[in-house]
């Protein structure tokens, strides 16, 4: 068996309810990512230092810890406030190197400094085992739908901040490894919160409605005339149709067309929508929330406070369900604004390059 933990910075310890810091974060609701800089939701002292899980330093966290077998089945699950001390700060590139070269004889100089008496072999073995289980977890998420649109990334001059070149962002296996455990943590926290009666009416969920029927049916008709069979009854059906297309250019076009019929995922307060509307269409799960990014998303801070209430670390949220629904709607609005701002920033830099 394996003991696997997802440890997320305990931002709610530093951002206390009804303080000026909390009020400011509640107004911002999200960090904004531009090409050349990030406008953070929280002060840099928290983002870069106190809430950054730096190696060989004690850090306050909320942890979801599972005991799993080799088939990725959860045998035991724990939720807790914790103090962790990580042993190394690996980049996605480091993890990708381990995944792509399982038989490579890695040396200490191939990685950042490793502390707490862990060895290079400990690091490479752990990454390899986590990767193996993550693939099993992904295969078990039957019906989950991923429609990733192309995203540009830029190489920027340090002094002038002007773009030198751009490339299309490629998601690699190391990204998928981390994503799989983040998804699992979010799903399990949502399940834990929704199964606790005394806080159920205040749970902040991330729900994803089913596609716009008219738009989807029009897309299906067009695809049928091109020889692609799709009935669109479920996210699983759409996912299978996408995977059945072998030509990469055709697959990208199909993803683009299907994405147009998809509705946006939104935040909501559980008691303000019918139980039947809790589900997340793309992930094909009944409950989902955001728990894993409290440094850059305000809903995650609320979810941490809710989990703290379930675990008797703190009181329940002071806001009424109606007030929480208003906060959720503000988060939806600000998230869309931040997304638009990020896209406009990327378009501006592209225009500079191709002028």
UniProtKB/TrEMBL annotation:
What are the annotated GO cellular component locations? P-body
The molecular function GO annotations come to: 3'-5'-RNA exonuclease activity; RNA binding
The record's annotation in InterPro entries points to:
NA-bd_OB-fold, RNase_II/R, RNase_II/R_CS, RNR_Ribonuclease
Show the SUPFAM superfamilies listed in the entry.
Nucleic acid-binding proteins
User: Which BP terms in the Gene Ontology apply to this protein?
Assistant: miRNA catabolic process; mRNA catabolic process
Q: Where is the RNB domain?
A: 2-313
Give the matching PANTHER family.
DIS3-LIKE EXONUCLEASE 2, RIBONUCLEASE
State the name under which the record lists this protein: RNB domain-containing protein
Species for this entry = Rotaria magnacalcarata
Where is the organism placed in the taxonomic lineage, from the top?
Eukaryota, Metazoa, Spiralia, Gnathifera, Rotifera
